[in-house]
């Protein structure tokens, strides 16, 4: 059994990790750490666990957990994980960070976008970017895993086949993205209060959203050239889910059926990527509560653009589910273990 600990267990991503790992046949949850709720029972904070996992929340560091754990998940806001993670710690335990601290390879880029100092920049090069479908082999041998962001997961996977096959002018990429409110986290925050967000639809972080350099970094690596793109996120008055619509100018003629075939072949070995047939497009409810990422494609011959629609559950494939998919790879398990959940459409 894999002995696991979670730091930041009572945020939305932490709760989803617990919910999924409770049913993982090869994992034993040893420690659940929460600074805010130390000493409380998990079921006091999340009554859905009552009678299923009656476990007391502790306040422990990764170093304190490392003697008993095989893997530690960090589900903390940016800037906090890098304070605890060191090469010495990685000699003892594998780390999967659901935050942003190890996603960007450039320390200065991270500090510019996130406005915090990085406490362990020496580890940035070692950290493996955990996008399972594109970095599977590197993930298998990783000690430090940077779990991708939710917008980035959906955007990169939706665009990778086009970039990799030189089918688009990379300077024309536009990503229009929408997220449910859980993407903002569980902390009190006025813009996401019910009265502030219900019956409304708004853009935010235009030109400044922190997932932008992450998307650019990974697509640039695929392209073999620097990509700069436009990314605009929006907040939807729903609990969970992400839908991105990406636009780019084609560099050669291709019909829609050929494009769908190209995507299907590109992801033919990936259990959680579903490519839609012509005339059908993804919706957030079709991936809700699952680790699937759904992709639909359209061509606009009038403007010579390809339009890609991608959908994920931001808390699962965009966070906790992907972290478990990464864990499975890191421990040489079936990649789908504990994640074979059919989406709940309602």
Polypeptide structure, described:
With 346 residues, this protein is α/β, with parallel strands linked by helices. The protein has helices spanning 12-21, 42-45, 62-65, 81-84, 87-90, 107-114, 132-140, 150-164, 194-197, 212-223, 256-266, 316-330; strands at residues 2-7, 27-33, 71-74, 94-97, 128-129, 144-146, 174-179, 202-203, 230-235, 242-249, 273-275, 293-300, 305-312. The strands form two sheets. The protein has a seven-stranded mixed beta sheet with strand order 8-9-7-10-13-12-11. α1 links the parallel β1 and β2 (27-33). α8 packs parallel to α10. It is globular.
SSE inventory with pairings:
Elements: E1 2-7, H1 12-21, E2 27-33, H2 42-45, H3 62-65, E3 71-74, H4 81-84, H5 87-90, E4 94-97, H6 107-114, E5 128-129, H7 132-140, E6 144-146, H8 150-164, E7 174-179, H9 194-197, E8 202-203, H10 212-223, E9 230-235, E10 242-249, H11 256-266, E11 273-275, E12 293-300, E13 305-312, H12 316-330
Helix pairs in contact: 1-12, 7-12, 8-10
What are the salient characteristics of this protein?
Rossmann fold; 29% helix; 12 helices; alpha/beta; single chain; Dihydrodipicolinate Reductase, domain 2; 346 residues; 6-stranded parallel β-sheet
């Amino acid at each position: 059994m894999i002995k696991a600990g979670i730091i930041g267990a009572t945020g939305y991503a932490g709760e989803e990790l617990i919910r999924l790992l409770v049913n993982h046949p090869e994992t034993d949850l040893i420690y659940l750490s929460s600074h805010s709720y130390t000493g409380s029972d998990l079921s006091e904070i999340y009554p859905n666990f009552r009678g299923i996992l009656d476990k007391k929340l502790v306040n422990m560091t990764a170093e304190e957990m490392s003697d008993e754990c095989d893997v530690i998940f960090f589900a903390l806001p940016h800037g906090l994980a890098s304070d605890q993670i060191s090469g010495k710690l990685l000699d003892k335990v594998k780390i999967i960070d659901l935050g942003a601290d190890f996603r960007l390879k450039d320390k200065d880029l991270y500090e510019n976008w996130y406005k915090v100092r990085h406490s362990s920049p020496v580890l940035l090069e070692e950290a493996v970017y955990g996008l399972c479908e594109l970095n599977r082999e590197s993930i298998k041998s990783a000690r430090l895993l940077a779990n991708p962001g939710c917008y980035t997961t959906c955007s990169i996977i939706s665009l990778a086949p086009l970039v990799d096959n030189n089918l688009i002018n990379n300077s024309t990429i536009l990503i229009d993205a929408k997220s449910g409110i859980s993407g903002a986290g569980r902390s009190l925050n006025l813009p996401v209060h019910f009265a502030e967000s219900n019956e409304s639809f708004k853009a935010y972080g235009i030109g400044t959203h922190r997932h932008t350099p992450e998307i650019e970094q990974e697509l640039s690596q695929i392209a073999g050239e620097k990509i700069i793109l436009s990314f605009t996120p929006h907040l939807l008055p729903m609990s969970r889910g992400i839908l991105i619509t990406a636009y780019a100018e084609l560099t050669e003629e291709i019909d829609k059926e050929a494009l769908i075939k190209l995507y299907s072949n590109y992801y033919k070995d990936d259990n959680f990527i579903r490519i839609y047939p012509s005339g059908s497009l993804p919706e957030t409810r079709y991936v809700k509560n699952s680790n699937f990422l759904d992709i639909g494609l359209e061509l606009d011959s009038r403007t010579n653009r390809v339009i890609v629609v991608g959908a994920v559950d931001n808390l699962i494939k965009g966070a906790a589910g992907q972290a478990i998919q990464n864990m499975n790879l890191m421990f040489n398990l079936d990649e789908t273990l504990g994640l074979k959940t059919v989406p709940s459409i309602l």
